[in-house]
Amino acid sequence: MKDFIEELTWRGMIHQMMPGTDELLKKEVTTAYLGIDPTADSLHIGHLCGVMMLRHFQRCGHKPLALVGGATGMIGDPSGKSQERNLLDEETLAHNVKCIKAQLSRFLDFESDAPNKAELVNNYDWMKNFTFLDFARDIGKHITVNYMMAKESVQKRLNGEARDGLSFTEFTYQLLQGYDFLYLYEHKGCRLQLGGADQWGNITTGSELIRRTNGGECFALTCPLVTKSDGRKFGKTESGNVWLDRERTSPYQFYQFWLNVPDEDAKKYIKIFTSLEKEEIDALIAEQDADPGRRVLQKKLAEEVTVMVHSREDYNMAVEASNILFGKSTKDSLLKLDEQTLLDVFAGVPHAEVEKANIIGKPAADLLTADVPMFPSKGEMRTLVKGGGVSLNKEKLSDANYAIQESDLLDGKYLLAQQGKKKYYLVIAK
Predict the structure, then answer these.
(1) Is 44 a catalytic residue?
(2) Which residue in 59, 188, 211, 236 is the catalytic one?
(3) In terms of Cα–Cα distance, which of 272, 309, 220, 224 is closest to 33?
């Protein structure tokens, strides 16, 4: 089995670690948990560093627990936030938890008979019947307000970062998360909590609660908050988060995100977000440095993450879709694309909506000059057609007066017109 700390160290995935953590993991098979906030029905790539920690943990022979915060998600963690979150109802949370487990199963083994198979736990299960009075008496008495006030996440909110201050609800969050650690310590033998760098304060509250109630020794390890090489937040695009759910971020968009990261980011991300071995990554980085234009690092990164999150088929379609715009392709390539991928590929090209009745049977020269302003005149279009410079659905147009057939419409709705190699127009039948 690999050494977990050694594995995370060369990957650049350790931010802080309690003394004794390495010794514990070398001595025995250990159970660790990582908390995931179920405020949406999908994870996004901002969650991936933590999820990859769990993946490496299991691959190193230890037992991972993925905790979805069904209870704490109803409150909202103040760490790294400037305002209080919206509170979710039980039905929404149950839906979100179900979707998140399905996504996590792409990274973790939940189903085998292995002694270290992953488990999904939900803190709502042990918090739903815990009364406020019982919690205040049995848990609250062990941690002082002074201790809680000293946490950085609390101080930031109290010192002006939050417009409305810090509510009592949010203030109690670290105690609730601390109780999760205590509960899992007592019921699952969990002795290690993993998380992002912004969770250190909450995690250490849990280890302190265990020490004060049980006299037990527990440990903590956090990964750095991943950033871009320019210091900006990782995982955000102009349209928002990059999600793991294909309905929120299509596999093509997902693939394109990784394919287009800068070289320096690719060198960091391929260590954090893939399971490739060190030797292979070092070789890829050397190859990239020798010939940056080939972008071998970005291509391998995009392949590994897209296959892991989606599938090999989705990756192949994303590559083929990319080639439609940036390389040689045929009508067959277009026909293989589903509607969403087709729209994603051509999101940046001019679109024109035309009544279907005004497309079928109409000469291409009429359609692309009168209904669609692709060419300034029929004469110019005819000249380009004669020179082989106009295509419909990636097939050369030999006659400017060719009458458009219903069979020419992709998905019964789209017609792709092309001038030269790079000028496109997408006609959409209404």
Answers:
(1) yes
(2) 236
(3) 220
